Amino acid sequence: MELTRPVFFVGFMGAGKTSVARRLARTCGVASVDMDTYIERREGKKVKEIFAEGGEEGFRAIETDVLRELGAKPDPLLISCGGGVVVTPANHDVFREAGFVVYLEVTADEAASRISDTSTRPLFQNLEAARARCEERLPLYEAVANVRVSTAGKSVPAIAREVQRILEKEGILCPQQR
Ligand SMILES: Nc1ncnc2c1ncn2[C@@H]1O[C@H](COP(=O)(O)OP(=O)(O)O)[C@@H](O)[C@H]1O
Ligand SMILES: O=C(O)C1=C[C@@H](OP(=O)(O)O)[C@@H](O)[C@H](O)C1
Ligand SMILES: [Mg+2]
């Protein structure tokens, strides 16, 4: 199948953005890129190290650069963003211009139960702070979303199938034209 526009996955840490985009890419035969993985390869450093060296500000600047680059690829991609992509106002323009945004909903508590090793996520160090951060970001996720998908109690394959049906209905995921 092929995409007519880039599709961005947003939502809090642990929502399943990386897993669902990867699963959908495999089952539909389309290309996907995970922004954090892409950033780590480009910078030659782990996300954790980028935060330690340049702070959140340094990470956000790289993130915006990469979002613009991936969103402008001639062959549209499934792009799993990092959970904080919505905190940078300029990123909202990238979403609006060309893309379709799938918001995967999760609570901080459910996310915490899914993430076994929070050491890779510098902004998910304690549950209290994560709950507050999640709540603070909710209106931002809602503002950029073209569609919301609840992930509570659902498996990754089930969520990927749900997203697939939405993208097909919207004419974003189509049978290959050539
Ligand atoms: N729907 C789900 N149900 C159970 N575990 C999940 C689900 N989605 C993701 N996970 C698990 O949660 C962790 C974080 O998932 P990930 O895809 O990295 O989320 P994100 O990219 O949104 O932070 C992984 O260990 C993954 O296997
Ligand atoms: O929510 C955030 O601010 C972040 C989420 C992470 O990605 P995931 O949402 O894929 O865990 C990663 O980009 C970085 O640690 C910052
Ligand atoms: Mg991820």
UniProtKB/TrEMBL annotation:
Pathway(s): Metabolic intermediate biosynthesis; chorismate biosynthesis; chorismate from D-erythrose 4-phosphate and phosphoenolpyruvate: step 5/7
InterPro entries membership: P-loop_NTPase, Shikimate/glucono_kinase, Shikimate_kinase/TSH1, Shikimate_kinase_CS
Keywords assigned by UniProt, alphabetized: Amino-acid biosynthesis, Aromatic amino acid biosynthesis, ATP-binding, Cytoplasm, Kinase, Magnesium, Metal-binding, Nucleotide-binding, Transferase
Residue positions binding ATP: G14, A15, G16, K17, T18, S19, R121
TM segment ranges: none
Cofactor(s) named in the record: Mg(2+)
Residues that hold substrate according to the record: D36, R60, G83, R137
Enzyme kind, highest EC tier: transferase
Function of the protein: Catalyzes the specific phosphorylation of the 3-hydroxyl group of shikimic acid using ATP as a cosubstrate.
Subunit structure: Monomer.
Name of the protein: Shikimate kinase
Gene label: aroK
